[in-house]
Amino acid sequence: MKPEKIDLEEHYPCPRCKRGQLKAIVLTEAFGCDRCNQIFGLAEESYTLEQLSTSYPYKKAWQWSGTVWRDDSRGIDSTYLPAAILVVILPLLLLWLLTVMDFPRTPSMVLWSLLTALLLVIPALMFWLSLRQRR
Q: 19: which DSSP letter?
């Protein structure tokens, strides 16, 4: 669906709380929700509505389709899959390389390779858990 231009003279439902109405704030290019008191500003030639009053590092953004808001946030999600694949495949590749090469298989070598793999997987797990908590 093609986004519609957001008009300051119109009233829209709040994209955050879904119960309130957005009303234009006088002398600004911003909207305020009458229910949750969030403030939203216009961006990208009035096609995108961004949440302004947030401490979250990635701005939430929406586009109006004529009937509903479509989430247009650009955050860390777009880089999640390649980073997760890299962090999971790298330790597996390292373990495979250690088993294929003709290294002496001492218990200390196995322990070091497992420790290395664990240290590479833990940040991926923390990253995944932080993304799940955000939603």
A: S
pLDDT tens-digit profile of 24-64?
999 888 999 999 989 999 987 888 999 886 666 667 889 99
**Alpha carbons 121 and 130: distance in angstroms, whole number:** 14
- Express each pLDDT in 79-96 by its tens digit: 566 766 776 777 777 777
Name the residue among 71, 38, 33, 75 with its Cα closest to residue 53. Answer: 38
Report how far apart, in Å, the C-alpha atoms of 25 and of each of 34, 80, 107, 125 are. 11, 36, 68, 43
Higher pLDDT, 50 or 110: 50
Phi first, then psi: what are they for 98, rounded to 5°? -70, -35
Kindly report the CA angle at 127 between 41 and 71, in degrees rounded to 5? 30
pTM above 0.85, yes or no: no
- Annotate 76-134 with DSSP letters as a single string: GGGGHHHHHHHHHHHHHHHHHHHHHTT----HHHHHHHHHHHHHHHHHHHHHHHHHHHH
